[in-house]
Amino acid sequence: MGTYAVIGLGRFGASVARTLTALGHEVLGVDTSPKKVQALAEMLAHVVIADAEDEETLRSLGMGNFDGVVVAIGQDLEANILVTVMLSEMGIKNITAKAQTELHGQVLEKVGASKIVYPEEDMGVKVAKSISSETILDF
Ligand code: ATP
User: What's phi and psi for 112, nearest 5 deg?
Assistant: First the structure.
């Protein structure tokens, strides 16, 4: 099984980290908030309270050794982009980053993210498909 780092343990990041763990992967969760980190301390293989905007921190956490890194920082656009740039410059190939808008996603792609996710939009598509398939089954 793989090893993954999830940076930002908000609703989205926490869900990604928990699900990867449930699928049998070894997950490191990183967040500046002690509360967010504590909430997942029992569940994830490793957790750390740290500011991912600090390049030394990213290096000392050994980000380059993971099979993939997920940038799940939301509101703070600058931190989200900066962390993605730093991970990419460290040579990490498998970077999944959460985008707020299409333009934000394009920027993330340019600075080295290999996969962009739009949680609200992607969930909207899933829900619509699920409703649609229920409708078809109902006939
Ligand atoms: P969600 O919808 O997933 O709950 P959100 O879009 O509201 O998240 P935020 O709450 O802004 O996004 O960010 C998600 C998490 O990222 C938060 O728990 C926040 O503490 C964490 N975070 C923000 N900046 C950093 C950083 N520089 N280093 C580590 N974690 C960070």
Answer: 120, 5
